[in-house]
Amino acid sequence: MKGENYMSIAFLLISILFYSTLTTALDEPEFGYNEKSPNGPRHWGDVKEEWALCKTGDMQSPIDLSNNRVEVIPKLRALKMSYKPQHATLLNRGHDVAINWEGDAGSIVINGTHFFLQQSHWHWPSEHTINGRRYALELHMVHVGPQPDGTNKTAVVTLLYKYGSSDPFISELAKYIIEEDGEKSLGVIDPSEIKMGGNLYYRYIGSLTAPPCTEGVIWTINKKVSSVSRGQVKLLKHAVLKRYAKRNARPLQPLNQREVQLFVRPQGKE
């Protein structure tokens, strides 16, 4: 019982911190994705002092996941995912379309630490590439977890999409995405409906891909590529096209000697 109380308190504290810092920072209107704009990706670090890492950081994201850089770790501890239905809100943040879960929507476990799901959002085209190939869409599932030193760390689980058949999860949200900008209640949404699939995952330490470009983020990218229809990508794109460029993907960042690991999730296990 004490363990359950601890987890509930930890989730509450993490949610408060996440929405008062991370989400607020990502909602800032001062940055954009147009390379020719003075507030484009190359200039993010100059726009605000607290965004300096966007310019000076040496562990920035996204990166290219190249085979000749990947270290295969057959015994790397697998990613454990345990999600559950929870009330959620669809948010048009100007630079993307996001889902905010309003309560405990479950968590992932990385190296024994629970990271609680807070939010999901999309980038088009993909921010990460595999062997130089850029995909049509990229989903980020953002989690936050407590650390022994009292701080919180962010872990992002990523799914890449290529053009093909429609994605069922986006189809479920389509009627809300086409409505006006702002916030819309979705009712209860089950994150486990986002089908990851596959048993191969990339893992590396990077940063947020939007200001303030905070480093120390644990990235886990599913090697198996899902599919999305052109109409679905167009739907997401048009939702923010009024104020931003046709794309909301940050350019690739230098690897800077970082390790990129590849691990296998045993079949039938989370």
* Span between termini: 24 Å
- The coarse overall form would be globular
- Judged by helices, strands and strand pairing, the structural class is alpha+beta
CATH architecture: Roll
CATH superfamily assignment? Alpha carbonic anhydrase
Please tell me how large the radius of gyration is: 18 Å
CATH class assignment: Alpha Beta
- As for the number of domains, it is 1
Low-confidence stretches: 9-28
| H/I helix tally | 5
| Helical content (DSSP H or I, runs of 4+) | 10-25%
Pfam families: Carb_anhydrase
Organism: Clitoria ternatea
Cofactor: Zn(2+)
Catalytic activity: hydrogencarbonate + H(+) = CO2 + H2O
Describe this structure in words.
Residues 1-25 form the signal peptide. It is found in: Plastid, Chloroplast stroma. GO terms for molecular function: carbonate dehydratase activity; zinc ion binding. The structure is a single chain. With 270 residues, this protein is α+β, with helices and mostly antiparallel strands. It has one domain (2-264): Alpha carbonic anhydrase (Carbonic Anhydrase II, Roll). Helix content is 20%, strand content 35%. It is built from 5 helices and 16 strands. It has helices at residues 2-26, 44-47, 53-56, 168-177, 230-240; strands at 64-65, 70-72, 80-83, 86-92, 97-101, 106-110, 113-123, 129-130, 133-134, 137-146, 152-163, 183-189, 200-207, 215-222, 226-228, 260-264. The strands form 2 sheets. Strands 2, 3, 4, 5, 6, 7, 10, 11, 12, 13, 14, 15 and 16 form a 13-stranded mixed sheet that branches. A hairpin with a 2-residue loop joins strand 6 (106-110) and strand 7 (113-123). Helix 4 packs parallel to helix 5 (230-240). The longest helix has 25 residues, at 2-26.
